[in-house]
Amino acid sequence: MRVNFKNFNLNYITPTTGIAGCLVISFGLFASASHYTRSITYSPQNHFISELGLATASEYSYIFNICLGFGGVLLMMFTNGLGIYLRKIPLAWYASYIGIGATLSFSAVGYFTADSWTAHRNAAMVFFSGTMISIVLFSYCIWQNKQRKMHHSISIQGFLIAFIFLIVLVWPKELLTQSVEDPVNFIRPELWGLTVLEWAYCVMIGSWILTVSGDMIYILSKKETDITRR
User: Fold this and answer.
1) C-beta neighbour count of 31 within 10 angstroms
2) Rounded CA gap, 206 and 177, in Å?
3) Rounded to whole angstroms, how far apart are CA atoms 30 and 19?
4) Which of 3, 80, 98, 222 is deepest in the core (most CB within 10 A)?
């Protein structure tokens, strides 16, 4: 059977890379978390995501870090493709440029582990803040771009991500400072609000990417079906 590449819709690359990026990153998370070697069982309720990248904390930390690097590249392709898809609104290009910078920083988080705290913190902050700005801009473009007919719930989801980011910014950081400056004597709380917020923020980012990808696939397939019926 011969594949007809002539009729292949390049727009499918965008949702494919979005879904693939989320799957790769999720695999790295579960692989490292399931082989956590410290005395306290790994849990999102009192552990940061970046702790999975420490060689002293997980046997599969290297898989986690590799998945962050590769997943960041896939999400960079998704961000660029989404900017092209929504190109009718100029803000989409700015959202895409900021998103590309954020996804590159995401890959850098896998290279600069928490052992190199300053570089790791800087890369993480660029990712967190850049992703929030990019998603808010994309969400606005999705709301305004009636031609693409993307669901408005995606925009609402994007604005909620920005709200969580603002909560993270104002949340007390004293425990985080203690854990970095004196990790030996640090007593980890059973429920750490900051780690829960970080996980919630990242899960919502992933769900936003998957929702956008699923909506794009639905719109593209529906459009192709309508063309075929004519």
Assistant:
1) 19
2) 27
3) 17
4) 98
In the chain, the number of structural domains is 1
- pLDDT at residue number 220: 86
Q: And the tokens for 160?
A: 């909620």
Please report whether residue 230 resides in a domain: no
Q: How many residues does the chain have?
A: 230
Show Cβ contacts of residue 45 under 8 Å, excluding neighbours closer than 6 positions: 190, 191, 192, 195, 196
Q: Is the pTM of this model over 0.70?
A: yes
Nearest to 85 by CA among 29, 15, 35, 134: 15
Q: How far apart are CA 69 and CA 61, in angstroms?
A: 13
Range of the domain at 34: 10-177+188-206
Residue 213 lies in a domain: no
* Dist CA 9 CA 22 (whole Å): 22
Q: In whole angstroms, how large is the CA radius of gyration of the chain?
A: 19
Distances, alpha carbon 201 to alpha carbons 75, 86, 92, 159, in Å: 16, 24, 22, 12
What is the tens place of the pLDDT at every residue in 130-187? 999 999 999 999 998 776 688 889 999 999 999 999 999 999 999 999 998 898 889 9
Handedness of CA 101, 103, 107, 110 (dihedral sign): positive
Is position 70 within any domain?
Answer: yes
Q: 79 Cβ partners below 8 Å, 6+ apart?
A: 95, 96, 99, 100, 102, 103, 134
Residue 5: the pLDDT is 39
Kindly tell me the sign of the dihedral angle through the C-alpha atoms of 144, 149, 152, 153: negative
pLDDT at 149: 80
